[in-house]
Design brief:
This protein has 190 residues and is α/β, with parallel strands linked by helices. The chain contains six helices and six strands; from the N terminus they run αββαβααβββαα. It is 47% helix and 21% strand. Strands 1, 2, 3, 4, 5 and 6 form a six-stranded mixed β-sheet that branches. Strand 5 and strand 6 form a beta hairpin. Helix 2 crosses helix 5. The longest helix is centred in the N-terminal third of the chain and has 35 residues. It is globular and about 70 Å long.
């Protein structure tokens, strides 16, 4: 009986050690990965003429940004917390100066901002990456889409990818942006 107890004890110790090693490996690899990626934060995205408000739009942009894996995207609750502590009004903070101040308060490397507006039969999504340290607009993308509001998340996905220079799904782009080919537009399709 004693031998098997001893063997079990040794085995459980070995397993515990192995688990510890694995956990350290996971956390340290996660750490180095995260360190190499800049931290980005999204406040609200200004909206006009569409169903979603700026907070909902900010959520969609944050979600699509996270999917790209280019930045460490700050958690919306952390952002909300810090913004509140620093008396920043997310509903009106769309200008460069306010965004940079918010970025400093959040200790973010990059701030993603922009607007989604409807003009008649078009939806224009304009997004910017602002570098907090250099206080400069680093990347900009403005894309016009057909007014297909139920597809707004896919439009945001395309805009975020274009903003970051990533590949977009061409079929999706054709469905949502083909205003140059009136023959294929939803209205004239018979």
């Amino acid at each position: 009986g004693k031998l098997s107890d001893f063997a079990q004890h040794g085995l459980s110790r070995t397993i515990k050690k192995a688990i510890t090693v694995v956990m350290i490996a996971i956390s340290s690899s996660g750490f180095t990965q995260n360190q190499s990626k800049p931290t980005a934060a999204v406040l609200g995205i200004d909206t006009k003429g569409i169903i979603q408000d700026s907070e909902a739009m900010g959520y969609l942009v944050r979600l699509e940004l996270e999917k790209t894996n280019v930045y460490n995207v700050m958690d919306k609750y952390d952002v909300a917390d810090l913004v509140k502590k620093n008396n920043i009004d997310v509903k009106t903070c769309f200008g460069k100066t306010c965004i940079i101040e918010a970025g400093k308060a959040l200790t973010a490397d990059k701030m993603i901002t922009g607007s989604v507006e409807r003009f008649g039969e078009k939806i224009v999504i304009s997004l910017k990456v602002i570098d907090v340290k250099n206080q400069a607009v680093e990347k900009v993308n403005a894309t016009e889409y057909l007014n297909l509001q139920p597809e707004i998340q896919k439009m945001v996905e395309i805009s975020v990818k274009k903003l970051l220079g990533l590949e977009t799904d061409q079929n999706l782009v054709n469905l949502l942006i083909n205003y140059d080919q009136p023959i294929a537009s939803p209205k004239t399709q018979l």
